[in-house]
Write a structure and sequence with these properties.
Layout (H helix, E strand, L loop, with lengths): L1 E2 L15 E2 L13 E9 L8 E7 L11 E7 L2 E4 L2 E4 L5 E7 L4 E8 L10 E6 L2 E6 L2 E7 L18 E5 L10 E3 L2 E5 L1 E2 L5 E3 L2 E3 L9 E12 L4 E14 L2 E15 L5 E11 L5 E3 L8 E3 L10 E4 L12 E2 L1 E8 L2 E9 L8 E5 L12 E4 L7 E3 L5 E11 L4 H12 L4 E5 L3
Antiparallel strand pairs: 1-19, 2-7, 3-9, 3-33, 4-8, 5-6, 5-9, 7-8, 10-11, 11-12, 12-13, 14-15, 16-24, 17-18, 17-23, 19-20, 20-21, 21-22, 22-32, 23-31, 24-30, 25-27, 26-29, 27-28, 28-32, 29-30
């Protein structure tokens, strides 16, 4: 289901299109369903019993709506229905999840009209200045599009919109934190830049107390609900303040997608596209900036752990470069965490990390983790060009091994190809 959202628009009826939820597994597909194509997926990484997203272009196969399609996995003579979703953008994609326990998968895409429509598995609820993505009545993520003010008595310059908090685990624990008394400008998952050359002057969009700039929500572009994923796209403005005037230094389109919960984890993708509306912007070398994560106050030096793709721990991860980084610890009696992943095409990949040392905040050792591509060099952004950063978070409960993190990053960096064999009419 796709909904166009404009600020203030509150659709009273949500209609679902392009997704299919099969309530019962059936031993074989309908004999009356026409097979449109056979789809083959070959996985190329050691199995870790994860389910990963795969995509196939739909329009070269059929122009039928998703409500008239059925996807089944074929194993010898058995055909098992598979939950899928049609991403109805300019280029329609068929999306589903594949378990890596089996390396070779064969599917049939069938024309089977008359499918029963049901509420989507992953829903988006917009209320009270925020948008919440949830699955089976469990909250997964909340995005704030209206400003959130600091506690009473604190300078209102610390107000902020366009951030994610809470980020919940599959079991419902919060692993983000906002407005910590030690850093009132920390906002869960958020992405300002600290040391920026714009219009002949330096601007700090990160430390709000400086009153040099901020990042704010401007508008929604789209919202999708479905059985495989939910997604929103929002416009952000990186605004510079000078002499009582405001000027947008950077325009940003941030697209956030959550895939369905599987086996005590779910996948969160964040895609960021920057452009310069007026003049060039130089993101200057600085020890932090960009996609940051202020973690739960329950994590300290005594109980939190870090492991990077290069084998670094919390003791020595800061300043190192990594493809992925696991951050975890106990929350409400349950182990919880997330794997942060950087896409290979990101600027300065593998990206430098800013990980707070164990003596942060008066030796409490609170947790802050940040992929900071400008930690060791500048990044020039020019008008008329688009710049993209892509990140994946795998949010989990229980144990998440280095082997699973490596597999997850591999399929993020190199999604499995889908071979399509279209059946003749």
């Amino acid at each position: 289901m796709i909904i166009n959202l404009k600020l203030g628009l509150r659709p009273s009826v949500i209609k679902r299109s392009g997704t299919l939820l099969l309530l019962f597994l059936m031993g074989s597909a309908s004999t009356h369903a026409q097979v449109l194509a056979t789809l083959r997926v070959e996985l190329d990484h050691p199995a870790t019993v994860m389910e990963i997203p795969v995509h196939a272009m739909l329009d070269p196969i059929t122009h039928l709506p998703g409500s008239e399609l059925r996807l089944v996995e074929v194993l010898r003579k058995k055909r098992t229905p598979v939950v899928f979703q049609v991403d109805a953008g300019p280029d329609r994609k068929l999306t589903w999840l594949v378990n890596d326990k089996t390396k070779s998968h064969v599917y049939e895409l069938r024309h089977d009209p008359g499918q029963k429509q049901n509420p989507p598995e992953i829903q988006a609820i917009k209320e009270h200045g925020s948008l919440t993505l949830k699955s089976e009545n469990k909250n997964l993520l909340r995005y704030h599009f209206e400003p959130v003010y600091p506690p009473d008595g604190i300078d209102t310059a610390f107000k902020r919109s366009a951030f994610i908090h809470p980020l919940w685990t599959p079991n419902g624990q919060e692993i983000t934190r906002i407005q910590a008394p030690d850093h009132y400008h920390h906002y869960g998952l958020w992405n300002p830049w600290t040391h920026v050359l714009f219009g002949g002057d330096t601007v700090d969009f990160w430390n709000l107390k400086s009153k040099q700039g901020t990042v704010r929500f401007a508008d929604f572009i789209s919202l999708i609900e479905g059985d495989v994923f939910a997604e929103y796209a929002a416009l952000h403005e990186h605004v510079a303040f000078e002499n009582g005037q405001e000027k947008v230094a950077l325009g940003e389109l941030q697209t956030v997608r959550i895939y369905a919960v599987r086996n005590n984890y779910y996948i969160l993708d964040i895609n960021i596209e920057y452009n310069c509306p007026s003049s060039e912007v130089r993101l200057l070398e600085y020890r932090y900036g960009g996609m940051g994560w202020r973690a739960t106050e329950q994590w300290t030096r005594e109980n939190s752990k870090v492991l990077t793709s290069e084998g670094k721990s919390r003791k020595n991860a800061d300043g190192s470069k990594a493809r992925w980084c696991i951050v975890e610890g106990p929350v409400d009696g349950d182990n919880a965490g997330a794997v942060m992943m950087s896409y290979p095409a990101n600027y300065n990949h593998p990206e430098p990390l800013r990980i707070w040392p164990e003596d942060a905040n008066g030796n409490r050792g609170d947790m802050f983790a940040n992929f900071s591509p400008t930690k060791d060099k500048d990044w020039l952004l020019e008008p008329g060009k688009k710049y993209t950063l892509r990140y994946r978070f795998i949010v989990f409960n229980g144990e998440f091994t280095a082997q699973k993190a490596e597999a997850g990053w591999h399929y993020f960096a190199s999604p499995p190809a889908v071979e399509v064999i279209k059946n003749p009419k």
